[in-house]
Amino acid sequence: MLLKLQRPTYGLCLLLAGLLAPMAQAQLPATVVASLRAAKIPESALSAVVVPLDGGQPRLTHGADLPVNPASTIKLLTTFMALETLGPTFSWRTGLYTDGPVEGDTLRGNLYVKGGGDPKLTYERVWLLLRELRNRGIRKVTGDLVLDRSYFTLPASDKDAAPFDEEPERAYNVAADALLMNFKALRFDMDTESGGMQVRIDPAMAGVQVGSRMKLLKGDCASWSQTWARPEVTTLPDGQVRVMLQGGFPQGCRASRYLGLLGATDFASRLTRGLWAELGGTIAGQTREAVTPGDAKLLAEQQSPPLAEQIRDVNKLSNNTMARTIFLTLGANQPLVGLDSQAAAAEAVRGGLARQGLDFPELVIDNGAGLSRAARISVRHLAQVLQAAQRSNYAAEFAASLPIVGLDGTMRTRLVGTPLAGSARIKTGTLNDVKAVAGYVRDAKGRSWGVVGILNHPRADAGQPVLDNLLQWAATSDVTLTQVAKP
Q1: Of the four listed, 66, 189, 263, 476, which is most buried by Cβ atoms within 10 Å?
Q2: Are the C-beta atoms of residues 111 and 98 closer than 8 Å to each other?
Q3: Residue 308: exposure state from Cβ atoms within 10 A (0-12, 13-18, ≥19)
Q4: Which H helix or E strand runs over 113?
Q5: Which fold has domain 93-303?
Q6: pLDDT tens track for 365-396
Q7: Confidence check: pLDDT of 178 > 80
Q8: Are the C-beta atoms of 39 and 462 separated by less than 8 Å?
Q9: Closest Cα to residue 233, out of 255, 192, 205?
Q10: How far apart are CA 431 and CA 320, in angstroms?
């Protein structure tokens, strides 16, 4: 009787690899098992590895070869590949160009703002760029403001993509762009300490009005966001934009929230015009998009901080927008015919892994940030990324980008007062149904380990103690355990 194979080839290979494991069916650490039970999460929902950074057998592998959603821990792969491919001193440039002459204080032509994919083009740096132009004696621009966003070729699917979640205006949801100014985020400062509601926005934006319909409530200032509602954004007949805050806000309180309410082009136009007006300048023409002519004259330029500095925000603060921008830069620097920058970036990552002698057949990396339902990697392979980064010439730059337990970043308030505080460097990841940690831990004997733990389960949000106990076990235990990966 002939039997049909019911599993794909890759899954069968994982099963065979598990059967050949030298020490099968060992148990997870007792503290991890206990916290899983307390959270009502099955052991099968946890994938975990603890591997030595100096070589040798793993201390723990559990579900290590299963493709799982890594959430923001995939940023480790993005930033490591960026260091290896672009180098730690790589920087991005944003320039002001013109196709016309300068006569006295007047630029008789168009002003081109050429984006170079800067992941952190804050409004302060846009101001410095415009200040450099103003210092050349230019005050009036007779032509158009032309925005050049051509450095990245974005996927056509991005234009019609549904919001990732129910809060598309939140700053963490801002998509990457070659000319992304200030993460296209406005800071809304709300103040009811003087009785009524006062709302201010920062930075200055041309043609943006802000108002409030928020109801003043009695309540705790710390819980103000519970009565927050999505603002109403209206484009008026004269082209101005009106933002009306809604929901409720407690009396006698102050709070701020960053929101991305405008498109990248509209935001860049209004910010540039607003800051230029603050500097005493005028632009007579309209705003439009176009590629900067090859013979255009450079008037002013801003260079970004180096990559090694930028990845600290990516990993310590888990900045999605910066991660996505760096990922796209990998594609823009190695363009492939017929591929957009995102697809080219995925190929650049695979090529970079191959140069490290690594092959991750299960890998799905779509935007490089982990803000994705499709991203997949096994914890064994993510641990191999940690090992490869430790061997790299840029190991120090990579490690310095990770949150220090109990001190900064997304690990600032976790495991305070434990032996891990101040020593372990751990990247975190969180999505609905996903909780993850990955990074470096030293044990009681001073040996360094790469630790990866990922929960994929509807109750993953209750699983932080599981991952914290895994990290603490890695820092204290001397026992070698191997758990067969369940196919």
Answers
A1: 66
A2: yes
A3: buried
A4: strand 111-114
A5: D-tyrosyl-trna(Tyr) Deacylase; Chain: A; (3.50.80)
A6: 999 999 999 999 999 999 999 999 999 999 99
A7: yes
A8: yes
A9: 205
A10: 12
CATH assignment of 9-88+308-476, among 3.40.710.10, 3.40.50.150, 3.90.190.20, 3.40.50.920? 3.40.710.10
Placement of tokens 């092959």 in the chain: 359
pLDDT in tens, 181-190: 999 999 999 9
Q: How far is CA 366 from the centre of its chain?
A: 13
Is pTM beyond 0.85 here? Answer: yes
* Average confidence (pLDDT) over 202-208: 89
The CA-atom distances, in angstroms, between 187 and each of 123, 167, 255, 299, 313 are 12, 16, 10, 30, 19
CA-closest candidate to residue 344, choices 155, 174, 157? 155
Report the pLDDT averaged over residues 91-97. 99
Decide the pairing of beta strands 287-289 and 297-303.
unpaired
Q: At residue 162, what is the residue type? A: A
Q: Which two tokens stand for residue 249?
A: 């806000």
Crossing angle (nearest 10°) for helices 307-316 and 320-333: 140
DSSP state of 246: E
Length of the chain in terms of residues written? 487
